From TrEMBL:
Segment forming the signal sequence: none
UniProt protein name: LacI family DNA-binding transcriptional regulator
Phylogenetic classification of the source organism: Bacteria, Pseudomonadati, Pseudomonadota, Alphaproteobacteria, Hyphomicrobiales
GO molecular function terms noted in the UniProt entry: DNA-binding transcription factor activity; transcription cis-regulatory region binding
Domain HTH lacI-type: 15-69
Entry keyword Repressor: yes
Pfam family, one: Peripla_BP_3
Record keywords: DNA-binding, Repressor, Transcription, Transcription regulation
Keyword DNA-binding found: yes
Organism name: Segnochrobactrum spirostomi
Length: 342
C-alpha cells in the first residue's frame, strides 16, 4: 500500500505580503510593486517575489486594496425568490458577467417583508458594495435615498420605480399580444392569473391584458393568488374550474402558475389542452418546452437581462449625475401546443 500524501499544516491566518518579503529577502514595498501592474521593479526582484509567493501560497488581498481605493468591487445581488427557475437563471448570468468585469458578486436573499429588503441593502452598504442589483422586491424610497447619499448605484430588474435605474422586459406589449393570441384562437371566456403582491411587472401584465381584451369586447376574470409558484397555479386552477362559467383561455403571469393551472384542468377536470383550454405563460423556463406542458409563453432572456444590467451599471458609474436609466427588452412569444393554431 502506498502512503498517503503529507498535508501542509493548517495556518492560523492568511499568508501576508510581509511573509513573502521575508521569504524572498526583499522589502515589503517590493512585494507590493511586484503585484502592481506597471510599477517600477527590477525583473530579478520580481522573479524572487513571485517564486516566494508561489512557494507560500500567497494571494493578493483584493479586499484591502479595494478599501484603500475606496472601492470594494463587491456587487450585491438581492432577491427573495431565488428558488424559481427564471430568477436563478438571471442570478447565474449576472454572476458570470460580474466576475468577468472584475467584480465579486455577493448574493443576499431576504424574506417577504420590506424591512427584510432594507436590512439586506444596509448590509451591503456596510461592506461598501459598489452597487446593488435588486432581482426581485421593490426598493422603498428610504433605501433609494440612502444609496444615493452613499454614491452607490442601485439597479432594479423588472421594476419601474421612479428615479431609479432599471432594466425590464416589455410586459405590457407581451400581455397585449397574449390577449390577441387567445382571442385569435377563438377563446371566448378569458381569465388572467396573477399574484396578490401586485409587483409593478405583474400589474403591467394584468392591466395590459385587460385593456386589450376590453378593446376587443371581452371582460376577462382576474384571479389573484398568494404565491406565483406551482402551488399557486394549482390553487388558481381549482378556483377557475370549481364551478360556474369556466374559462377557455387563460393567461398566467409566469410559467410555474401556468403549469399548475394546466395540471388541474387536465388531471382534475378532464379538460384537453388546447381543445378545451388554451394557456399562455410568461418567462419560458426550461420546463415550458417539456412534452408534458408544451407551453406557449413569452421568453425573458436571462443573459440579455444580465447584460443590460451591466450596461446600466457601467453608464451609472461613468456619470453619477445622469437621469435615471431605463432599458426595455422585448419579451418574445414562443408558440407551442398549449394554444390552438389559427
Amino acid at each position: 500500500m502506498g502512503s498517503s500524501p503529507k498535508l501542509t499544516p493548517m495556518r492560523r491566518e492568511f499568508v501576508s505580503a510581509q511573509d513573502v518579503a521575508a521569504q524572498a529577502g526583499v522589502s515589503r514595498s517590493a512585494v507590493s510593486r511586484a503585484f502592481t501592474p506597471g510599477a517600477s521593479i527590477a525583473p530579478e526582484t520580481r522573479q524572487k517575489v513571485m517564486a516566494a509567493a508561489e512557494a507560500l501560497g500567497y494571494r493578493v488581498n483584493d479586499l484591502a486594496r479595494g478599501l484603500l481605493a475606496r472601492r470594494s468591487r463587491l456587487v450585491g445581488l438581492v432577491a427573495s425568490d431565488l428558488d424559481t427557475p427564471f430568477r436563478a437563471a438571471v442570478a447565474s448570468a449576472l454572476t458570470a458577467l460580474l466576475m468577468t468585469r472584475g467584480n465579486v458578486p455577493t448574493l443576499v436573499r431576504f424574506g417577504p417583508s420590506q424591512r427584510d429588503g432594507i436590512a439586506a441593502h444596509e448590509t451591503l452598504l456596510s461592506y461598501r458594495a459598489e452597487a446593488t442589483i435588486f432581482l426581485s422586491g421593490t426598493p422603498p424610497a428610504s433605501l433609494i435615498d440612502l444609496a444615493r447619499r452613499n454614491g452607490q448605484p442601485l439597479i432594479a430588474l423588472n421594476r419601474t420605480e421612479p428615479g431609479i435605474d432599471h432594466v425590464r422586459s416589455d410586459h405590457a406589449g407581451a400581455a397585449r399580444f397574449a390577449a390577441e393570441r387567445l382571442i385569435a384562437a377563438e377563446c371566448r371566456t378569458l381569465a388572467v392569473v396573477t399574484s396578490e403582491r401586485d409587483t409593478p411587472s405583474l400589474v403591467q401584465r394584468v392591466e395590459a391584458f385587460q385593456a386589450a381584451a376590453n378593446q376587443a369586447g371581452f371582460a376577462p376574470r382576474v384571479l389573484r393568488i398568494a404565491d406565483t409558484d406551482y402551488a399557486g397555479g394549482l390553487a388558481a386552477g381549482r378556483a377557475l374550474f370549481a364551478g360556474g362559467e369556466r374559462p377557455d383561455g387563460v393567461f398566467c403571469v409566469n410559467d410555474l402558475m401556468a403549469f399548475g393551472v394546466m395540471d388541474v384542468a387536465r388531471g382534475e377536470h378532464g379538460l384537453v389542452v388546447p381543445r378545451d383550454l388554451c394557456v399562455i405563460g410568461f418567462d419560458d423556463v426550461p420546463q415550458a418546452a417539456w412534452r408534458a406542458y408544451d407551453l406557449a409563453t413569452f421568453r425573458q432572456d436571462p443573459d440579455a437581462l444580465a447584460a443590460a444590467a451591466i450596461e446600466v451599471l457601467d453608464k451609472r458609474q461613468a456619470s453619477h449625475e445622469a437621469a435615471a436609466i431605463e432599458i426595455v427588452l422585448p419579451a418574445t412569444f414562443v408558440e407551442r401546443g398549449s394554444v390552438r393554431s389559427t
